[in-house]
Amino acid sequence: MTTRYWHGGAPGLQPGDLITPQTGTAHLVDGCPTCEARRAGRQLENDPNDPSMVYVTTEREYARIYAAGYPRGGLYAVEPIGDMTPTTDDPAPSWAVSRARVISVYDRLVILTPKAAGSLIRRFTR
């Protein structure tokens, strides 16, 4: 059985597109210190994620949380490219990779109600 990997993030990606750390920065807000750090690829003080990496997971619903964090974010089945480094701080199985290729678009527009978002977050933080 083949492992399926998921990525939730930038809207509008198509099968065959490459996801890189620079993909999907349109949601970043000018003047926001966190957004400016992410745009520049700088590590955030309380964020263990490396801004020079792309993150994938085997948990589709965990990736859905990240997709919903983007304006009009999408949920994608992806193929990791490069070495896969397991993350230690994520509550779901996740890996950092240098990039990923979109295999298919699972959900073009992920919108979670506050209740649905809370339910998913609780599921993965227990």
Give descriptors for this structure.
126 residues; alpha+beta; ADP-ribosylation fold; 4-stranded antiparallel β-sheet; 3-stranded antiparallel β-sheet; 3 helices; 23% helix; globular
Overview of the structural elements:
This protein is α+β, with helices and mostly antiparallel strands. It has one domain: ADP-ribosylation fold (Alpha-Beta Barrel), CATH 3.20.170. The chain contains 3 helices and 7 strands. A hairpin with a 7-residue loop joins strand 5 and strand 6 (94-97).
Strands, count: 7
How would you characterize the largest beta sheet? Answer: 4 strands, antiparallel
User: Helix content range of the residues, please?
Assistant: 10-25%
Q: Order of SSEs, N→C?
A: EEHEHEEEEH
Overall morphology: globular
Number of distinct helices: 3
Cα gyration radius (Å)? 14 Å
- Enumerate the strands of the largest sheet in spatial order, edge to edge or round the barrel: 1-4-7-2
How much of the residues is beta strand, in percent? 25-35%
Question: Total domains, how many?
Answer: 1
Q: Superfamily at the CATH H level?
A: Rifampin ADP-ribosyltransferase domain
